[in-house]
Amino acid sequence: MKIQINRLLFVVAFAILSCSDELDLVPITEKSASNFYRNEQEMETAIFGVYAQLQNNGLYGLDLIGVGEIPGEDTFEEIAANDGGRFGQLDDFSTNAENDLVGDIWRESFEGIQRVNVVLNRIEEVEFDNEALKANRIGEMQFVRGLLYFNLVRLYGDVPLVLEETINPSDYFGQERTPSSEVYDQIETDLNAAIQSLPATKSSGRPAIGAAQALLADVLMNQGDYSGAVSLLNVVVNSGEYLLMPTTAEVFGVSNEGNAEILFEVQYSSGLNGNSEGESAASQFRPSGTTANAKGHNLPSAEFVGLFEASDTRQNDYVGLDAEANPFYFSVKYEVSETGADDGDTDHIVIRYADVLLKLAEALNESGGANPEQYLNMVRNRAGLSNTTATSQNDLRDAIEMERRLELIGEGHRWFDLKRTGRAVETMNAWFAANDKNVTISSNHLILPIPQSQLDTDPALEQNPGY
Fold first, then answer.
1. What is the pLDDT of residues 358-390, one digit of tens each?
2. What is the number of alpha carbons within 13 Å of residue 204 lying toward its C-beta?
3. N or C: which end of the chain has fewer CB within 10 A?
4. CA 239 to CA 466: how far, in whole Å?
5. Whole-prediction pTM
6. Which of 411, 129, 381, 139 lies closest to 266 in space, CA to CA?
7. Segment 394-400 long-range contacts (CB within 8 Å, at least 24 positions apart)
8. How far apart are the first and last CA of the chain?
9. pLDDT at residue 454 is higher than 90
10. E-assigned strands of 231-280?
11. Which residues neighbour 50 within 8 Å (Cβ) at sequence distance 6 or greater?
């Protein structure tokens, strides 16, 4: 059963810090935060507020998926100028500091961090009927803060590190950006703490130990620590808590939500509260003219679809085509809702077991571990493919990368994969040249600009090079 999170009606009685240009921040409700969150019920309300924040379009409702994929070579914008170029600028690396997407991800991430900090700064003083549950909730919040900062540091580089509840936003004016290395240290601290506090068994919409271990492994891989990642991923695999669904057709779709392959998801519901509780990806990631509010964001290219082998079940299970309405492909991992545009019922899967297996294959291959191909083959075989023929480290590296592209299309991973493996600049410049695109990128394009609204608000923040 889904966590019942109502973004409009649940009580969120604290002012939200986002380092934004809105200086007069006020509580969402009339109830003063200083007089709230004093018992278990009120604290649970605050925790629901954290999960609700993840649903927003600036995070997993839309933007984080697009920004994790469109800069790569596998998806594109049907109309570059659509929505003022929010996503279109990602296609040709022309994103500027005034792009709404750049500002929305930053703002909503820091709003989420503030919500987490409110909980973590107050929960110790709150008495729970079950102390084990209280420890679980602390672990959940540490996991979410680690996740949000991991997104921020990969997208923007150095970012302000805020670990305390902010009561007066002016207290943080003048704070410079924290070096990425220190942000990574804090992410690891949060996730290691979460591993000690989370339950072993996952419940719908909440992380368990396996999710924190898998996320921490990703964090380590992004810093080149493949051996450390192997240790963590092996624990996840050997836990028996997660498994691949028998077929690729059973992984996605509203009817398959909460399945054994999912380690952590952000949940959505359509048809609730004036159709305000759904996600936008299903409609906006469809070609124009195919459904209400279809905007042609993040469409798989024909070149990408041509990479599927004839026997690969993912071509039909993961990618769709409505040739009569529009000749472009789209991801079918998100179901369009019958209740209207931008009210999708599909949960967004942040971490799933196929990703874990492919990351374990990658980490083993990079660290010289034994038999990385066995985990690659598990994903291939599920898709109807035979075992890989790759044997050398270089060939396996290419095979694992290709499998990640095919398996994770539409989920917002490709750009982060290219950055993690150090192949982003080389791959994209080669792709632009092969497709006669007058675009060349450098290492400066690997991170987004700091939002202009933040620079205007706080002169202590400096812009990233090249913007």
1. 999 999 999 999 999 999 999 999 999 999 999
2. 12
3. N
4. 45
5. 0.94
6. 411
7. 396/361, 396/365, 396/372, 397/362, 397/365, 397/366, 399/373, 400/358, 400/361, 400/362, 400/365, 400/372, 400/376
8. 45
9. yes
10. 262-266
11. 112, 115, 116, 119, 140, 141, 144
CA dihedral 46, 50, 56, 58 (to 10 degrees): 130
Domain 1-178+434-449 class in CATH:
mainly alpha
CATH 1.25.40.390 maps onto the chain at: 1-178+434-449
pLDDT at 9: 39
**Per-residue pLDDT tens for 233-288?**
999 999 999 999 999 999 999 999 999 999 999 999 999 988 889 999 999 999 99
Residue with tokens 């399945």: 259
Burial 397-436 (b: 16+ CB within 10 A, else e): bebbbebbbbbbbbbbbbbbbbbbbeebbebbeeebeeee
Element (H, E) at 327: strand 326-331
In degrees rounded to 5, what are phi and psi of residue 128?
Answer: -105, 150
Return the H-helix or E-strand segment holding 351: strand 348-352
